[in-house]
Amino acid sequence: MVDAMTTEGIRPDVLDAFRAESRHVYVPRFVRRIETAPGTWETRVFTPDHPDWAREVYTDQLLVTATMFGDDGPPLSSSTVPSLMAAMLDALAVEPGMSVVEIGAGTGYNAGILARLAGDDNVTTVDIEPDVTTTARRALTAAGHPHVTVVHTDGSRPPAAPRSLDRLIATCGVDRVPRTWLAAVRPGGRLVLPLGTGVVCLTVDEHGHGEGPFLAMPAYFMGLRTTAGSNGIPYPGDPTDPLEPCAMPLDAWHDDALRFPIGLALPASDLGQRDLPDALTLWTGDGSVATLHADGTCRQSGPRRLADELANVRRDFESAGRPGREHHRLRIDPQGRHTTSFTPPA
Ligand SMILES: C[S@@+](CC[C@H](N)C(=O)[O-])C[C@H]1O[C@@H](n2cnc3c(N)ncnc32)[C@H](O)[C@@H]1O
């Protein structure tokens, strides 16, 4: 596996753990949607009798291992891209004997690697899907880790007693760090988790604050399934204020680098969103709404000026020289308030 991965700067113990752990044990079946002709999609199922199964398993890529509503449906669980797993485990800095909880057991592969770093008895991994925890437990046992604890639960609940964990890692995404996660980690302990479209590494201080940098790598994890999505936010109606020029062009919304700071300033779970080919409408639960048009105009109304907020994020990002994720930091207080900052690239 390591031969296929980007390994620059990764701790040797993490790479050794990847060398020791066989990914194929954890992914006996996965599916992939393939565009066979423009607009025509086919689902391929990979099992050990497929000639490409082993090669696909040991390629540095995401493998979708569970789906909703049959094999053609949206992903429910997956094995993360190994290079991204390695970057997250490198940041987590696990030492033998440390107590570790993983939110998002999935296939169990990451828990198997954590077990190599911390010791089998010290690792607990949880997943909200009962079938997923059953197969993860089976795979971990087959891989020689019968003492890793696999729990079927909602990972947004307190994962351990307050201040009891040395490390917490999440492999499903949030756009706000659940207070339960921060509270579970002891002072001096660490959390590594996907936030927005990045991964943040937080160290907890003696007052229960978490603080730390984002990793450079982009990350698009499936979300923690209890996080409210945009569907739950009632549409307040079309914006009513006069049409105005907009300092946030519609195509900037699709700029991946800019979407990272936008995600920090306007978390996706707070936003309703409707995409049309030549317009984008966003709204929040307090009745604010804005529509950006492809011709560079917008209309907005409500207590928040959402188009202006987007334009301000863009202005700060551009004037700071478009800082990458690794130039951003996050601080959270025990009440769960998030403060982000960035240092412009030198
Ligand atoms: C990317 S997969 C995890 C990959 C896994 N670490 C591995 O090595 O295979 C994300 C997992 O998060 C789980 N998940 C989503 N919401 C959750 C929640 N509220 N609590 C616990 N697990 C959750 C999903 O069921 C899914 O299995």
Automatic annotation (TrEMBL):
Record Gene3D superfamilies:
Vaccinia Virus protein VP39
One MF term in the entry's GO annotations:
protein-L-isoaspartate (D-aspartate) O-methyltransferase activity
User: rRNA processing: is it a keyword of this entry?
Assistant: no
Instruction: Provide the alphabetized UniProt keywords.
Output: Cytoplasm, Methyltransferase, S-adenosyl-L-methionine, Transferase
Q: Which InterPro entries match?
A: PCMT, SAM-dependent_MTases_sf
Question: What GO terms fall under cellular component here?
Answer: cytoplasm
Q: What is its main location?
A: cytoplasm
| EC class | transferase
Q: Which is a GO BP term held by this UniProt record?
A: methylation
What is an example of a Pfam family matching this protein? PCMT
Q: Which domain of life is it from?
A: Bacteria
Q: Which region ranges are annotated with the description Disordered?
A: 317-346
Enzyme Commission designation: 2.1.1.77
Q: Where in the cell is it found?
A: Cytoplasm
UniProt KW S-adenosyl-L-methionine keyword: yes
State the signal peptide span. Answer: none
PANTHER family hit by this protein: PROTEIN-L-ISOASPARTATE O-METHYLTRANSFERASE (PTHR11579), PROTEIN-L-ISOASPARTATE(D-ASPARTATE) O-METHYLTRANSFERASE (PTHR11579:SF0)
Q: Which family does it belong to?
A: Belongs to the methyltransferase superfamily. L-isoaspartyl/D-aspartyl protein methyltransferase family.
This chain belongs to which protein, by name? Protein-L-isoaspartate O-methyltransferase
